[in-house]
Amino acid sequence: MTKEPKGSSNSSDEIKSELVRQLATVLDETDLSEIEYDTGTLRIRVARQISQTSIAVPAAAAPQSAQTPADSAERVSDPSVHPGAVKAPMVGVAYLSSEPDTPPFAKPGDKVTEGQTLLLIEAMKTFNPVPAPKAGTVTAILVTDGQPVEFDQPLAVIE
Fold it and tell me: Which CATH class is domain 77-158?
């Protein structure tokens, strides 16, 4: 039976620590909340807590008519609360077309049908289509090709 040199197990730990640091750097650079690295024999998952900023909510007793037109305009311009917002079903990387040199699946001004592919999200080396939840006109595409996206992030707006 042979003994490993004293520093050999530590060097493996140092490699793992360096990999965790590199994955954490990727999290910071891409604004993702978690990332996983799996080689089959080694699996590392790095996640961070994203603190939600609290938003002041108007008094609950305020009637709907008490809103000013400016408040309504702001809510419509905020894609996360827009009734036609198409949100990311998963964390991944958004792609607007099936290949780099092909036209996008949809662009602002296009009429789409329910179920039509708007874009793809790559997650764990699998390309997942994001279908239009309803028929209408695409008024905005809120992500760029190759952009990392978070779960529930607004991707497009259909009216």
Answer: mainly beta
